[in-house]
Amino acid sequence: MNAPHAPKVAGIDPSLPSPTQTADPVTPPLAAPNSGVQDRLASWVSDLTTLHELTERLVRTGSLDEALRELLRAGASLVGARRGLVALEPADGLGPVITVGLGLGHADLGQIETIPRGSASAGHLLDGLPEAGGERRADVTHPDIASEADLDPRHREVAARLGFSASYAVPLDPFRATPCTTPGLSAIPAPAPGADGSGTGTGSPADAGDHPAPGVPGVPGSETTSVAGTTSVAGTTSVADAPSVPGTGQGRDTAPATAPSSGLSAAMGADGPSGRLGGAAWLYDEPAEPAERQRHLVGLYCQYAAAHIARLIELSRARAAVTTVQEELLPTRLPRVPGVRLAVRHHPGPRGGGDWYDALPLPDGALGLSVGGVSGSGPSAVVAMGRLRASLRAYAVMEGEDPVAVLSDLELLLRLTEPARSATALFAYCEPGTRKVVLAGAGHCPPLLTGERRTEFVETTLSAPLGMLSCWEAPSVEVAPSSGETLLFYSDGLLHRTGEPMDRAFARLHTAAASAPKGVRGDPDAFADHVLRTVLPDGPAASVGQPSADGTDDLVLLVAHFD
After folding, report:
1. Are the C-beta atoms of 242 and 178 separated by less than 8 Å?
2. Least trusted range by pLDDT, from 21-30, 69-78, 112-121, 348-357
3. Which residue of 155, 381, 413, 455 could cross-link 450, Cys pair, CB 3.0 to 4.6 Å?
4. For the PPM-type phosphatase domain, which residue ranges apply (predicted)?
């Protein structure tokens, strides 16, 4: 039985084959990189994340001591150590010279300092011992101190006493080159041909050219170059090429002394410390040494940390210079006048303020006492304070019996020489023999008279600060302290540091003076310390000239006890 034929339709020949469909060519997908490259990329991202977190914590430190301790903690986590120390000794010789320990007490640091300088890890770095080729030492490692025959005996003795068996140290040099590049951070080797299954090695990041390995962030000039199938940071040596000096205690890598990079130079300033700042060493309880990856990470971190520490050193030097000038402009000692005993506490602010105090012997056994403050802060305020204080001394010698005349002359001088500034001042003319005190104030805090029977403020605030009015006037006030009573002169910094409103701060000062024990009232130094301990929240009671680290105003407290 024959199969039925398809019906014929006009214009269609069913015997012709169907035309082939035209389609766009399909591009085969790029081969995924092999697992080794993926692991390297993941490790690289992890290392950069770690460095980012550690440097963020570092830049949040506001003082040199905090930065050094954070450096030790971060470095210990990177190299896997438990203890360490950092020796700060800038190469320019201007200081400061500081040694800070992690997990080490003062006695332990003292024993480490007895190790000969050329033997200890940090000593090598501070001495800057060169290698045979004239290159600077990039790090120093002692993987097994007990077995090193050429090590100084004192080094082994101290290590055995303190219980560490190995050490690793790096310099603190913001301009040193990175010691080496480490796989996983800045080197991504190209896989062998066919490693991705294609037989040609296509699709690999090293061959792709469109995705070069990024440079290390934060390092100037960290462009990437590819050498012998390895992508590394320009200006550094790859792990395969890094020289390794055989023998214990030698620098594993050396970094040539290069010119400072423009980025770090601009960040640190032309007047900042230059060269090596010191060295950091970490101690292991058992024989060990950090791996190449750990060494590179801690090297990068220490380079960033050195730049931050250099800025803090420059800041501390500037603050120390301002504090020194301020202290030199104030009395180095208080006069001894029969019938009255004096004590002073002065805590300058970190930026340098314009508060002053003075005690000046006057003719006929009299005594002139003054406290005051110039508006503003910084070196200019310190200089203005010195000029006003010197002028007030001259006016006090000529017309000290009239405190209003003294302050009137001072106000005229301020308007003529410092028209953009204002100042507060308080001057007291004291006759210890008759226990008579005449005071005049110009916008300054009222003195406090305290004894066993009374504690009261002496009203002297009925006038404006100097330089605020075209014609300054103020009344004088006379008080007669009894035997055993004390007169307190102070600056507004004492009230501001309480952190409370002014009315509560005045009440706090009043309570502190009234509650002084009987044994304290007869000693002006003890009384001043009692007032500071009671009034201030954290109760500092340091000697004259100790700077304040809390970013507040100057603090002046002048105590006059009448016998």
Report:
1. no
2. 21-30
3. 455
4. 339-562
- At 326 the pLDDT is 73
Q: What is the pTM of this model?
A: 0.60
Copy the structure tokens of residue 195: 């490693």
> Can you tell me the distance from the alpha carbon of 488 to that of 226, in angstroms, rounded to the nearest whole number?
74
Rounded Cα distance, 334 and 358, in Å: 8
Select the more confidently predicted residue: 279 or 328.
Answer: 279
Measured over all CA atoms, what is the biggest interatomic distance in the chain, rounded to whole angstroms?
153
User: CA 315 from chain center: how many Å?
Assistant: 8
* pLDDT classification of 52: cutoffs 50, 70, 90: very high
- Residue 391: count of CB within 10 angstroms of its CB: 16
Contacts of 242 (CB under 8 A, 6+ apart): 179, 180, 252, 253, 292
With the C-alpha atoms ordered 534, 535, 539, 545, is the resulting torsion angle positive or negative? negative
pLDDT bin (cut points 50, 70, 90) of residue 328 is confident
The answer to whether the CB of 422 falls within 8 A of the CB of 373 is no
* Mean pLDDT, residues 147-158 taken together: 88
User: Tokens standing for 288?
Assistant: 């060990």
Q: What is the DSSP letter of 506?
A: H
Contact 28, 202 (CB under 8 A): no
Check pLDDT > 50 for residue 223.
no
CA dist., res. 128 & res. 388, Å (int): 49
> How far apart are the C-alpha atoms of 224 and 217, rounded to whole Å?
12
463 touches 502 (CB < 8 A): no
pLDDT in tens, 241-250: 333 333 334 4
CA-to-CA distance for 153 and 413, rounded, in angstroms? Answer: 69
Token pair for 126: 């501070």
* Angle at the Cα of 266 from the Cα atoms of 261 and 269, rounded to 5 degrees: 115
Q: In the numeric block, which tokens belong to residue 150?
A: 């050429």
351: three-class secondary structure by DSSP: coil
Rounded-to-integer distance, Cα 413 and Cα 534, Å: 38
Give me the residues paired with residue 519 across strands: none
For residue 84 the two structure tokens come to: 């360490």
Task: Label residue 275 left, alpha or beta by phi (over 0 means left) and psi (-120 to 50 means alpha).
Answer: left
33 pLDDT higher than 50:
yes
Euclidean distance between CA atoms 117 and 115, whole angstroms: 6
